[in-house]
TrEMBL record:
Residues 1-24 are annotated as: Disordered. This is Anti-sigma factor NepR domain-containing protein.
């Protein structure tokens, strides 16, 4: 059987222990999803509430190191 994506794969899952898509298909999908995420999510500024949370965490970590 030739490797690649067949539209019937979605209707007939692979047997247990086998993957429905080959490694190249998974890699290509991963690349596209990563690119989409980076262009949409990473470009957004962090909300002030998250910045405050990160600063509090940094201060707690610093205080812990000083306490040791």
């Amino acid at each position: 059987m030739a490797q690649g994506f067949d539209t019937t794969d979605a209707l007939h899952p692979a047997p247990a222990g086998e993957t429905a898509m080959n490694a190249e298909a998974r890699r290509r999908i991963g690349t596209v999803l990563r690119s989409f995420y980076e262009s949409r999510v990473e470009a957004q500024p962090l909300p002030d509430s998250q910045i405050d949370l990160l600063l509090r965490l940094r201060h707690k970590e610093r205080d812990r190191r000083r306490g040791d």
